[in-house]
Amino acid sequence: MGRLDAGWHGCNNGEVKRLKFAGTPISPEEWRNESVFFKKEEFDLKYAWDTGYAIAKFLEGLKAGKILGVKCNRCERILVPPRMFCEKCFRKVDEWVTLRDTGTVNTFSVSYVNNDASRREKPLVVAVIEIHGASPGMGILHVLGEVEPSRVRVGMQVKAVWKPENERVGAITDIAYFKPIEVM
Amino acid sequence: MTLFRHRMLETGKEMAFEAARMALDSAGLERKDVDAVVLGSAPDAFDGFHMKGEQLLDGAGGFRKPYTRVFVGGGTGVFVPIAAWWHVASGLADIVLAVGEEKMSPLQPHPQYAFWTIFDQFLERPLGVTLLWIFALEMRRYMHVYNVSEEDIALVAVKNKANALDHPAAQLPARITVEDVLKSEPICAPVKRLDVSPTSDGAAAVVLASEELARKLTDTPVWITGVGWNVDTTYWTNRDLCYPEYLEKAARMAYKMAHITNPRKEIDFAEVYDPFDYKELHHMEGLLLAGKGEAPKLTREGVTQRDGDLPINPSGGLLGVGNPIAAAGVMKVAEVFWQLRGEAGKRQVKKPVNRGLAQAWGDLMQVGTVVIMER
Description:
Helices cover 10% and strands 34% of the residues of chain A. By secondary structure, chain A is mainly β. Chain A has one domain (52-180).
């Protein structure tokens, strides 16, 4: 494969030199036919993450069917997702607060792709949901269900749909999805 | 810089070498003249190679020198010259080679998969999150708060891809219409295929010199007169995504240093970060080059075209030239350099320019990096 003579740019003191833009693109055909060498490898890295002080308690709350937040008594914000310290006042938070399991859609998207960019069989509605009982603007990421994607609106009021108690494991997915409160 | 392409035969190290060698050649310098090297490259997960800074070291010309890899996500490309600048400004070095490299193509089946690992492993990854989600969520929020239409946003993709027709290294130059964008395949509504920049391999490099040496090296130096950067909280779902406050802070830091009080009047043109078309508008507003919600109007009126009053992304941007992350930011700095020296050829903006700005953005909607350059 030869180099492409892709162009030039002037350089030093206005003296125009012909400079090639280096690089040898590999075409989709060369990639498919493997007509150039590749080295392929798969990793299988396994991790076990500690959940930490704040998230451990949050996940415990989810298992019990509750959304928990934390309160900082200095800025008086009620924060969710909960954290061990207030990043603004830079001090430990003061107390745990049980929030409501309802919220307001701050923004949303209809996703047609999986996380490896492959197409989903069915589109998924994802949203940032401001949780009621927390300070304004305190949203979490989650998915919406029981709603046509075309009916979703910013400002829509939604409620958590919990998995049955015996299926809850202490994970964000213990909330199966949020569904609109209003009659659609 | 190298060509920007979806997949390149060269390794990252080889691409870094090509770009670094070209930068040294155009400055009339050799590696021995370089006091320090700064390299930028985005997540290691693309390459599957940790210690990427060291993997690229020899290609960037950095061995047996003070060498640093810097990383602030997608903001890295413009952070590379910022870090190189502080080497020079502090008096630690007279000549610094600044290299941005990205090889996104190794990860299978798609580079997007690497972005999964930037999300919270307890609260976000279990939901199947992708980087595309947060762009879509941010775009929707921006459209909602400022009443911006998808048509207005599409105009940015049309402009940048057309500008890229004149960039010899461009990956996706094209003449397209607003309708093409609107009809392109939905990925994460409201984001569609043509709203998005491609994934790319590529490298780009620039040389920074102290004032005294710069005057010896060239009669037409370009000066860095302001730098700024800022990172917002990682609790991205707690922020209003309609406006990039961190970018305003980064811009104000740079404007203060460059003694700029009215950026809209005093910045002649800008290369703002456009991995998605709406981001150009969002960033123009964060940079105070347009009022909140006003950037779509400027775009509609042609103000941001190459022959407009405030040309934005005359290079063709990430949407047209391509988005090898850290290299894309350095490409923007190189474009400001070429424009200020009147060397941008067919891409040269119509109005005379004395001061330009390059900006990049990154991580979870939270990093702003800004460089102001003057001739």
